[in-house]
Design a protein that fits this description.
Blueprint (H helix, E strand, L loop, with lengths): L1 H4 L5 H4 L4 H17 L3 H12 L11 E7 L7 H21 L3 E7 L15 H5 L19 H15 L5 E4 H7 L3 H9 L1 H8 L5 H4 L5 E3 L13 E4 L4 E5 L5 E5 L5 E3 L1 H12 L6 E2 L3 H13 L9 E2 L2 E2 L16 H7 L2 H8 L7 E2 L5 H15 L4 H4 L3 H7 L20 H11 L5 H8 L12 H18 L10 H16 L6 H13 L8 H13 L7 H8 L1 H13 L1
Parallel strand pairs: 1-2, 2-3, 9-10, 11-12
Antiparallel strand pairs: 4-8, 5-6, 6-7
Helix pairs in contact: 3-5, 4-5, 10-13, 12-13, 15-16, 19-21, 22-23, 22-26, 23-25
Length: 560
């Protein structure tokens, strides 16, 4: 993703390594993948046990699926599910050497249950409640239907991040007859499916439940009514339409759709889905759909049940509440790579999604990326960046352009610099300070650092500047700050960061100033000079901000 992620392709993928060496490298990768404990490889190993040859019996590629409900716009949950699925997909390819497919499935045959709050022409939409999303006019006036608009947004969203996928529309499958045989299969097993579903439903819901939902010939709405199967092989059903008339009609060719859990199971069997992950809120749905898939003659795909995102208070993120972060907010204050890295670890553990997690994620991405080139292959497969660099390429090798790169300045250090410059700081100002720290400091030579400069300015304005408070030092802290000022007055302006760091250490360890440990001294520096409870290596900050400017910060603190 971004300048560091999407363009990555690998020597083995592009065919620049051939013959025996390529085979040996492939074999080494597969052996390492087979013993890797990284979660994508654990998932891939489980899927590989389903197909020991790496392929299905008919020779077709293993199929991964991710689903999307097009009643709303794509969001960070959409991103994480496709990305995590892609991690497993690429791990499976590395493990087996076989190609795979990924389908992004849009359930756009679903009936519109309520009018979304964030779209125009809500009165118009209200007139079409209950109809399939693909048969409702586009409230934005740009596409042939509401579903077509949101499907286009989904595809643009996935394309933006370079995901390799095939788009499949539920409406296209139903309307074209592609699902007709699968629908007949459902009708043949209608009683067995009811036996699975009815015990899970409340009495009032069970009274009207049917696995198949006819589309009304009167209103065009998807009906939740009892349905009798008249002729399963012909696809004929009987039900009472909205006008009270007992009606017989075909369930084929888009004249009906399936209930959600039945539809999910039918899709798994009809498309031949082998792997699909989903959130823990769908755990029960997955169980019931798995049973239905078995009744239909198929089997439930392999998959992982992941935990959901939480806000900073530990509450579930809700679009209606507006808590948590949107993907656009993350990309304003961080980077695509950092979001990918934050999503990577421990998918079965809940993650808090708020602005405070972004800086660490940015710096951790670069730490992992810098370490990658020097790691043994087994360690590389556990490095999140190994997976991120392969997410949208077809590579199977262990080396990648960009591995081993690092930033000359951490994001945390940038934020400290921007913090002392203030909310009105500009990109040009920040680069004028970076000259002190970065050889050949120029945005054109360091485009990734330039992106972070812009992000740091935005992050400071939103999260840091409004609440920044530089406290007054205590008497002992003031004495230590005065001693540091004296040290800086005698220092060479061109001294190295380590030299300044040593001077700071020595003052913190000096018994005259009474610090119980160095942590207390550094905390005092951060709170009195930077207005933060955490901060950078002070030696690096002094070089970046400049000796004279640092002495001014000390003077201001002593004046308080």
């Amino acid at each position: 993703m971004g300048v560091s992620w999407l363009p990555v392709r690998f020597a083995l993928a592009t065919g620049t390594t051939t013959g025996k060496s390529a085979s040996m490298t492939d074999n080494a990768l597969r052996e390492a993948a087979a013993r890797s404990k990284a979660w994508p490889f654990q998932e891939a190993q489980r899927l590989a046990r389903r197909y020991p040859s790496g392929k299905k019996a008919d020779g077709t590629p293993v199929l991964f699926e991710t689903g999307y409900g097009p009643s709303g716009l794509p969001h960070i949950g959409t991103f994480q599910e496709v990305l995590r699925t892609t991690f497993v997909r690429r791990a499976y390819e590395a493990l087996t050497g076989e190609r795979t497919r990924l389908v992004a499935f849009s359930d756009d045959m679903d009936g519109l249950r309520k009018v979304p709050d964030n779209v125009p022409n809500q009165e118009m939409l209200a007139q079409h409640l209950g109809k399939p999303l693909s048969r409702i006019p586009d409230p934005f006036g740009k596409f042939g239907s509401f579903a077509a608009h949101n499907n286009a947004m989904l595809r643009a969203f996935l394309d933006r991040f370079g995901f390799d996928y095939e788009f499949v529309s539920s409406s296209d499958q139903y309307n074209s007859g592609a699902f007709d045989d699968a629908l007949k299969n459902v009708l043949r097993h209608n009683r067995a499916i009811l036996d699975i579903m009815l015990p899970t439903l409340r009495a009032e819901r069970a009274a009207t439940y049917s696995p198949i939902l006819p589309v009304s010939q009167v209103s065009g709405a998807v009906l939740q009514v009892p349905v009798e199967v008249v002729d399963a092989d012909a696809g004929i059903i009987r039900f009472t339409d909205e006008n009270g008339v007992m009606t017989e009609q075909s369930a084929l060719g888009g004249q009906a759709k399936l209930q959600w859990k039945v539809d999910w199971a039918m899709r798994w069997v009809a498309l031949g889905v082998d792997y699909e992950m989903y959130g823990k809120d769908l755990t029960d749905s997955g169980v019931q759909s798995g049973k239905i898939a078995q009744v239909l003659g198929g089997r439930k795909p392999e998959g992982l049940i992941y935990e959901l995102f939480l806000d900073e208070n530990g509450e579930k993120i809700s679009k209606s509440k507006g808590n948590g972060l949107t993907i656009e907010e993350w990309l304003t204050y961080g980077t695509e790579e950092s979001l990918g890295l934050y999503i990577f670890p421990n998918p079965k553990s809940a993650k808090q999604l708020h602005g405070g997690v972004i800086p660490r994620a940015v710096d951790e991405y670069w730490q992992f990326r810098g370490a990658l080139a020097e790691q043994e292959l087994d360690k590389q497969l556990g490095n999140p960046v190994w997976h991120l660099l392969r997410a949208n390429g077809a590579g199977s090798g262990s080396e990648a352009p960009g591995a081993g790169d690092s930033l000359p300045v951490t994001y945390g250090l940038l934020l400290n610099l921007v913090g002392v410059l203030g909310a009105d700081a500009t990109r040009e100002q920040v680069w004028s300070y970076l000259v002190n720290y970065v050889p050949d400091a120029d945005p054109a030579r360091h485009p990734e650092l330039d992106v972070l400069v812009t992000s740091a300015l935005a992050y400071n304005r939103q999260f840091v500047a409004p609440s920044m408070h530089k406290r007054a030092p205590s008497p002992q802290e003031a004495a230590a700050l005065a001693a540091l000022d004296a040290q800086l007055a005698d220092a060479d302006e061109g001294a190295a960061a380590e030299d300044f760091q040593t001077r700071v250490y020595e003052i913190g360890k000096d018994e005259r100033f009474g610090f119980e440990n160095l942590r207390d001294w550094f905390k005092a520096l951060y709170e009195t000079l930077l207005g933060s409870s955490q901060g950078p290596r002070m030696g690096s900050f002094i070089v970046l901000y400049g000796v004279d400017n640092t002495r001014k910060l000390i003077a201001e603190a002593l004046a308080r």
